[in-house]
Amino acid sequence: MAIAQNYMGPLATNTMTRINENDNVLGTIIVNCEGFPETTTLDSLTAATYCTHMRNLSHHANNALKEIDVTGELIIIRFVAKKTEAFVIPDHEFHLIVVMRKT
Amino acid sequence: MAIAQNYMGPLATNTMTRINENDNVLGTIIVNCEGFPETTTLDSLTAATYCTHMRNLSHHANNALKEIDVTGELIIIRFVAKKTEAFVIPDHEFHLIVVMRKT
């Protein structure tokens, strides 16, 4: 899988390559702070749909957790569906989304 | 922990008791289809906050997954924060929310 490396340093590139080498990983998306996919190994339509929804969901979840505990901070969200799993790892500048085949 | 058993059959009551016996479980909430806590082992304010947010989040996530794959169906969402983890198990009539201490 070819990964666009426009904005990533070698460490990030290595990590992304390592994640994508896992046979169960269907694709990864790095979402920038404006909500657009920065680099992805999925097709652009799927990536755009994931970006829009997952970013909103992670913001909503983070706000909800902060309402329950002010010192709380969201680390990861895992969505398990019948056939796939999606992981969202929020960060200040970028969000990482990993889509996996369910094992 | 005392659990209100208004609407639950013995099987559900046993399951809830088993979950609550786990030392890392801080509390459980059963949310009805109107979004109100049916039974909970948390205080009512925390339970209400979890109910409102987690139910919205699980609806949003389910719709997002259906937009990506029409046959997709959400089974569980796991929110991992610094100190706690929350699990939301959506169902047609009830949602189960489990809040755990992070191990």
TrEMBL record, chains A, B:
UniProt-listed Gene3D superfamilies: Dynein light chain 2a, cytoplasmic
InterPro entries, per the entry: Roadblock/LAMTOR2_dom (IPR004942)
Domain Roadblock/LAMTOR2: start-end pairs: 16-99
Protein name, as recorded: Roadblock/LAMTOR2 domain-containing protein
Pfam families assigned to the protein according to its UniProt record, in alphabetical order: Robl_LC7
Domain of life: Eukaryota
Family that this chain belongs to: Belongs to the GAMAD family.
Organism: Leptidea sinapis
